[in-house]
Amino acid sequence: MQTISAGYRSLSFLFTLNLDRMLFGAAIIAALWLGSLMGSF
Q1: 3-state SS string over the chain?
Q2: 24 pLDDT more than 90
Q3: Which residue has the higher pLDDT, 13 or 1?
Q4: What is the CB neighbour count within 10 angstroms for residue 3?
Q5: How many Å apart are CA 6 and CA 2, to the nearest integer?
Q6: Residue 4 confidence class, pLDDT cut points 50, 70, 90
Q7: Distance, CA of 8 to CA of 37 (rounded, Å)
């Protein structure tokens, strides 16, 4: 039971890390897109 609990915790930690990276990438893409929109006007 302890092994399952530890595995779940590490999986949850990895998911949190990946979610953070995806949000960071989405923020960069959104900023570039907004910048190109502003630059085209």
Answers
A1: CHHHHHHHHHHHHHHHHHHHHHHHHHHHHHHHHHHHHHHCC
A2: yes
A3: 13
A4: 7
A5: 6
A6: confident
A7: 43
